């Protein structure tokens, strides 16, 4: 009795780390860590004269603690930026694939222009990541329209370009995930610093209005709170700007490479089928 064997379906390749979708969980964790650091490390009695947090700070950690609860919020924003930066690093590293992007772009363009699509597909399977996914979609569209003799050449080229654009749009959300949060923290860091500064100045003016030398500690504490919040908030915004611009620049490079390969595939079809109408 003859037995029939079904061909095994090709195993689905892992695409690597695609990013953290529920970033709010990360923010909650950063908030817990930030306020724990503020209360238990900066607020340790050994950082203050007499072992009392109401006393004069003995070191930098005690001075930062005097910035008030807003410091905990700024630490939360800072940790969020750092953690999202690490998350984006691994996500984009996976999206860029296993090969150098510039080297892959040159090689796949050369193969496409030579009509070696099987080798181009093999190179994409080796590369993996977002760039390879888009190139594979464009090559598949090329082969589909090439076998279709019922539509005109211009429509075929349009379908190749459409497939490329659709594949790119599917990949872009993964690439840009969580970057809007970092962009928001760029502004929030400065605004939170301003908020803490205003609170510190209010405390300082309250000490001045009450008069008397006994309020000199309250005056200095208010000024310290204002300056600490200003410095830490600006530092947070600075780091957020660097992280946001760094990853935005990497995404722009990837997008440019995708557009370059997509244009090459459409142009190659146009050249190889110049006799079609």
Describe the structure.
The protein is 75% helix and 0% strand. Residues 1-14 have low confidence and may be disordered. Helix 4 packs antiparallel against helix 5 and helix 5 runs antiparallel to helix 6. It has helices at residues 23-42, 60-65, 70-96, 101-113, 117-127, 129-146, 153-176, 179-210, 216-272. The two termini are 53 Å apart. The protein has nine helices and no strands.
Q: What distinguishing features does this structure have?
A:
9 helices; disordered N terminus; 277 residues; mainly alpha; 0% strand
Summarize the model shown.
By secondary structure, the protein is mostly helical. The protein is built from nine helices and no strands.
Number of helical elements: 9
N-to-C SSE series? HHHHHHHHH
Q: From the alpha carbons, calculate the radius of gyration and give it in angstroms.
A: 29 Å
Unreliable sequence segments:
1-14
Distance between the ends: 53 Å
Record the SSE blueprint.
Blueprint: H1 23-42, H2 60-65, H3 70-96, H4 101-113, H5 117-127, H6 129-146, H7 153-176, H8 179-210, H9 216-272
Helix pairs in contact: 1-3, 3-8, 3-9, 4-5, 4-9, 5-6, 6-7, 6-9, 7-9, 8-9
